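Shipment paperwork, digital attachment
Item: protein structure file
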Amino acid sequence: MSLRMRAGMRRLLAIVAKEFIQMRRDRLTFAMMIGIPIIQLTLFGFAINTDPKHLPAAIVVHESSAWSRAIIDAAARTGYFDFLDRSLSHQQADRLLRRGEVQFVLEFPEQFSRKLVRGEHPSLLVMADATDPVTIGNALGVLATMPEQLAGRFPGHPNAAFGVVIHRQYNPEGITQYNIVPALMGVILTMTMVLVTSVAITREHERGTMEYLLVSPVHPIEVMMGKLLPYILVGYLQVALVLLAAIFLFHVPIRGSIGLVLALMLPFIAANLAMGITFSTMARNQMQAMQMSFFFFLPSILLSGFMFPFRGMPDWAQWLGEALPLTHFLRIVRGVLLKQAQATEVLVELWPILIFFLLAMVVAVVRYRRTLD
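Attachment content:
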């Protein structure tokens, strides 16, 4: 090997050593490089499931009989349904379906047993929350085949048979855009609000303007709110664009109050902005702030029920999803716009968002004080 090649190799090795030293100093970036693949492997390998089972279901039985109990037991044995312990009225079951507390309602008509014995082929009514067609697809397929599976299994009544009538509520055509497009409001707000505000404090340091804030008579909470308010208006502008596209481009049937969605959207925007500010106070530069934002956005989009059925995930993944503001906002926007849910029916999803906002703001203010020090 010539002297020139040896010298070039030494320079190359020096650059490689320098990069390893830089990587060791930038521990956050190195942690992201290792952490993101681990999170993806964990979520996609253990949490994501496109064939959800044990879906909550309600029963409306006008008369309890051995026939109806046999059909309910057969449906439960498939593993797709977890039935409530008691029978409900039609109005109660419809309310639970609209609020998203149950995924299916099985309603047995009056005199179901008598018609079954007489060979009149009564129909079992199945109402399904079809806002997410992927969640209910396989379960409905199982219900549709139940009359054939139970044919001839009623002792002493070989001609006893029944049918299944399926009503796909809120999205009868099973159009995916009806479920995805309204939810895009939450996804876009999460991505942009966290990302933009995460570079707020770090940008002050990099541009040398932090000194002006240090000598100005401004309290930390005032700085936080001053950085949040402009982006709230930007967030509403983004939502307006998505709503216009949903109505005029994708023809999503808007059944509920847009004003209610816009009102409940404010805490959600504020929660994401507060999370971005928190990342901004923790990062040393804008690159680290953007890495933290992506680290937050990845589980938000995977565990919220936007891309994959929420009820198909294991319990530990659902607990993590419940801690994310996007999960609750998706339930709000889908419930109001697609199911015509009222404010009293979706306010329960607002409290976790408010708690997340308060916690993020407290951490941001504490971290901001340390940044000033």
